[in-house]
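User: Sequence in, structure out. Go.
Assistant: Echoing your sequence, followed by the structure tokens.
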Amino acid sequence: MQTFVLSSGGNRGGIQAGSLLALVERGILPQFIVGPSVGAINSVALAADPTRTGIERVVRSWHHVRRADVFPGNPFTVGWRILTGQGSLHDQRNFQHFIRAMTPTGIKYFSDLHIPCIVTATR
């Protein structure tokens, strides 16, 4: 079984997307995908649309994203979120928008993916 195992590390997300594009362009597709953290994002995006068009969408998303797009705010807002007991250091709406931009419409559950995928992440 041909499996892609993607790594973690936020700064690797764009590099992974470019590598996936090169593989897909050569007709190399996985039968199964595994990814933690940022690898989870790219894993699901590829599993959702394992075509050149699909992975080009992912590459474009990584090309245009900036830190503030995913992690808005500043040290004051992060401190405020800690003091007020909010569940994360940053508001998650921008991150959700970033993820949705990578996946085609109609993908809501893992059962909707075209390739089986296992992901892990920590909170």
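User: And one key feature?
Assistant: The chain has a mean pLDDT of 89.
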